[in-house]
Amino acid sequence: MVTVAFVLDLSNGWLGGVNYYRNLLTAISRYESDSIRVKVFLPKGQNIDAFRDLSKDIEFVSLSFPARWTLPWFVRKLWMKFLHEDRFLARHLRHHGIDVLSHAPDSVRCPGVKSIAWIPDFQHKYLPDFFSNEELSRRDAGFERMAVCMDKVILSSETAQADFITYYPLYKEKACVLRFAPVLDFGLRNQTHEIAKKYGTEGKFFFLPNQYWKHKNHKIVLQALRILKEEGKFVRVVSTGNTSDYRAPGHFAALEAFVKEYELGDRYLILGMIPYADVQALAEMSLGYINPSFFEGWSTTVEEAKYRGKPILLSDLKVHREQAPVKGVFFDPNNAEDLAKKMWDLWQQPPTNEDVDVLKRANEEALQKFARDYCAIVQSF
């Protein structure tokens, strides 16, 4: 049996990352617990609420990292900067019998432990204007260190793998594709009435569960709603997700101002961050999803739509084509009229109810494959 470590920091507000690790750890726990033993290391003081239901199968370890500005902190930073090694973390991993460090957090080696990096996407290469020069340099340097120092590098799609090989051709043998699958709760179908009352979402709506980062392109949805309003057509969208974008602090306020200026408040409902169980219930209630993003590594929204049997309006990206949702309708993410037309076409169609047992089985098969593919990567050393 291989003992695998994850070192997670849940304090950065990246909900997509939390959901990704929940999905992966759940898949391993359900289907590969006889092959992989998992230990999750968290900085001291962080709680495990997001993973508490997995605590029977996965060991959680509280780790005290050296306090900032102390001598051990400086020594660790120097080792990491100049030798690309984290001897502090390596010592703790070896003490706990770790064979493989998965999704290594700092793109540096841990001597005595095999290390796997994860690069979700190369967004900064395609959308450099969404990043500061400092962040562009940091990402380039970090990704290059991953290519050089890590034993393997996980990419979330074949699209991302092709990018990796383009940028780091000398290390193409390290690239591994691991397409993730979502853990869905189909039992929430029975709670839709209570959720509708809680959030005021009675009636028909499209669901947009993306964080309010600028590249997620919420603006095109608002522009499409404005066009539909001017044409006398009523369509409603319900949105959830973190409203903060550290790279563009005024972004969400600008979207709110657009909603107010064109009086779209009855057509665009912003719920912000809500419990994930409620997000899943809203998805069940919806007519279908929208993902207007300018860039994705492997979209959770698209995967959820696929395994819920829901239609999805999605931006015409290479990776979205790779995900191949059966009920997907692609649109130009720069063309609000294109989106408005396709929203209205789908709005007028009667809802379809897929057999829940068929959907459950497809979701379980996808999770099994996710776990099996991951197991093959960590056992390949």
Automatic annotation (TrEMBL):
<keyword id="KW-0328">Glycosyltransferase</keyword>
<dbReference type="InterPro" id="IPR001296">
    <property type="entry name" value="Glyco_trans_1"/>
</dbReference>
<protein>
    <submittedName>
        <fullName>Glycosyltransferase, group 1 family protein</fullName>
        <ecNumber>2.4.-.-</ecNumber>
    </submittedName>
</protein>
<feature type="domain" description="Glycosyl transferase family 1">
    <location>
        <begin position="201"/>
        <end position="355"/>
    </location>
</feature>
<dbReference type="GO" id="GO:0016757">
    <property type="term" value="F:glycosyltransferase activity"/>
</dbReference>
<dbReference type="Pfam" id="PF00534">
    <property type="entry name" value="Glycos_transf_1"/>
</dbReference>
<keyword id="KW-0808">Transferase</keyword>
